[in-house]
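Illustration 12: DNA-binding response regulator.
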Amino acid sequence: MSTDAGSETPAGEWSGPVRVLIVDDDALVRAGLTMILSAAADVVVVGEASDGAEVPGAVAAHRPDVVLMDIRMPKVDGLAATETLRSRAGAPEVIVLTTFDADEYVLRALRAGASGFLLKDTPPAEILRAVRRVAQGEAMLSPTVTRRLIAHVAAPAQPSQLRALERLGRLSEREREVALALGQGRSNAEISTDLHMSVATVKAHVSRLLIKLELNNRVQVALLVHDAGLA
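Figure caption equivalent — predicted structure in token form:
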């Protein structure tokens, strides 16, 4: 990622620098984001965390204005961490920064209280612009995400689709990935390869999501995924 971030200063009444906490389980991503943000005089990286479980402690220790939050993390995902964080008084703003832009994640992130949703291939200047904007209480979505969200709102889902999406919302992120793979008719071995987990772990995820969804078999899971429009 380039660090040609520009020298734009925040508008409005914000008096910087904007304090940022980076949450991502990939050390290289954290380092890259730190380089991007540190190139601006009005933004400072005050801390890092490698999992959503570390967010409450890191926020208490570093008191950031903005949290850059990854979605996919091993213990507590970014969506759960965002929901927990934003439910507290005086919480910092959150920008979800991820490679995964499925509609359900955009909507879940925004419902959880995130002020922004950006893809990790967003240009550095736009990441900085997002940090500055959400620090002022504004929202920031990447153009791709905005188009998807507008399309979703412009074409309301049928009640059956909304119910299916609500049921899938009970799952953890990893369970949801397995459910989506089931919706594509993939075998346990194929899911194991695609999601980089053992077949035994896949089976455990399938068992848990069947219980959570109150379904009897993987065919019913596939049908639910299709009802949700996610296949």
